[in-house]
Amino acid sequence: MANGILGSADLAAVTYTGVYLVPEDTFSVATVSICNKNATSITVRVAIAKTDATGSTLPDADDYLEYETEILSNGVLERSGLVIDASRQIYVRSSATNTAVMVYGIETATA
To answer: CA nearest 51: which of 68, 65, 63, 34?
Structure first.
């Protein structure tokens, strides 16, 4: 079981990125931190979605924690205390490049 940094990415603009997939037979307690490294504001979306067998499912309308949420220049958005089931993935999307996302926390076996 992993502890600490579970996933991270430097986001492409207007593209969903799967940052962390919870392993089978596991649940996670995680924090998502998004850092806007731009001199202007950006908007972000954060979702926790079920994955299909290939792990490629994108978020459905009811999967979002944040939707078009503004992060001011050089600002941070953080969501903590997220308890996530096995086989769910955290997806993040930014309106601009120069956006870093990190997921950190703990994984716990359920079996």
So the answer is: 63
Spatial distance between the Cα atoms of 75 and 57, rounded to a whole number of angstroms:
29
For residue 53, pLDDT beyond 70: no
Residues 6+ apart with CB under 8 A from 41: 70, 71, 72, 73, 75
pLDDT of residue 30: 98
Residues paired with 108 in a beta bridge:
27
For the record, the structure tokens of 86 come out as: 């096995």
Write phi, then psi, for 86 (nearest 5 degrees): -60, 145
Using a cut of 0.70, tell me whether the model's pTM lies above it.
yes
